[in-house]
Design goal:
Strand content: 25-35%
Number of helices: 6
Strand order of the largest sheet: 1-4-5-6-7-8
Largest sheet: 6 strands, mixed
Length: 255
């Protein structure tokens, strides 16, 4: 079921300094179960293909993989490969236990068949490298019944030397939240073609919520891009919302 295919992803230069060298290998898992004995019965499929940092148990790679194990599969204390295997087994087992009995009741209703065609796919890539930062991108796509599936993009910025995930508190001064939220709000108003915050809400953004600074961001060489998945600040139909703010505009709160 599981396989590891090694790939070498070495750091590139950022500015005048060369990044700490960091390599990755691909962790793969594929598992599926059928909801019935008939050949056209719906299935639940799990497909995982993610990059795992290569290194020993005391290296930055271990810190990175521990973070990914937690963030992608909600597990602790095991390898990324073990977590992917465990997640696939648990997900398909829960489908068999909880969803298959419901399908059996609806088996003769062709209109409901598609509701039971479950999937959970996880893919990742190294989105960017600069200085001593590796930007890791994971895409999670799943369908669990209902009107449509969900796709999320998750970004993690890792320090190549320590393996630690870089958070907003690491790059901004204490008390940055209010000013950053104002910058993000203005960026969203401009991007949406709105006149002000009230007009923004009329367009469907920030319904029953205030602007917030997400930890789902891409730390670039000259800017920071904040990534909001569907439903976080906008309706599903609007898709992914990305707001990019230059470091020049952030200089008052930059460490």
């Amino acid at each position: 079921m599981a396989a590891i295919a090694a790939i070498s992803l070495l750091s590139s230069c950022g500015g005048s300094e060369k990044s700490a060298e960091l390599a990755f290998e691909t962790v793969k898992v594929e598992k599926s179960v059928s909801a019935g004995q008939e050949t056209d019965a719906p299935k639940c499929s799990v497909r995982i293909e993610v990059a795992a940092a290569k290194g020993d148990s005391t290296s930055a790679a271990k810190v990175i993989n521990d973070a990914l194990t937690h963030e992608l599969f909600y597990m602790e204390g095991i390898s990324l490969q073990q977590a992917a295997d465990s997640f696939a087994n648990k997900y398909t087992a829960e489908y068999t236990k909880n969803i298959v009995p419901l399908y059996r009741e609806d088996r003769d209703d062709e209109l409901k068949r598609a509701w039971y065609e479950y999937h959970y796919h996880v893919n990742s890539e190294i989105a960017d490298r600069h200085d001593d930062v590796t930007v890791y991108k994971a895409v999670i796509d799943y369908y669990e019944g209902g009107a449509h599936g969900i796709q999320q993009e998750l970004f993690f910025n890792f320090n190549n030397k320590t393996g630690q995930r870089i958070t907003l508190s690491d790059i901004f001064v204490p008390g940055f939240e209010q000013q950053l939220c104002e910058l993000l709000l203005q960026a969203l108003i401009k991007q949406a073609g709105a006149e002000d915050a009230d007009d923004l809400r009329e367009k469907g953004y920030l319904y029953a919520m205030d602007m917030f600074a997400t930890e789902n961001f891409v730390l670039g060489s000259d800017d920071v891009t904040f990534v909001y998945n569907p439903y976080e600040i906008a309706p599903y139909a609007y898709g992914l919302v990305e707001l990019t703010i230059s470091k020049d505009d952030l200089k008052k709160i930059w460490k």
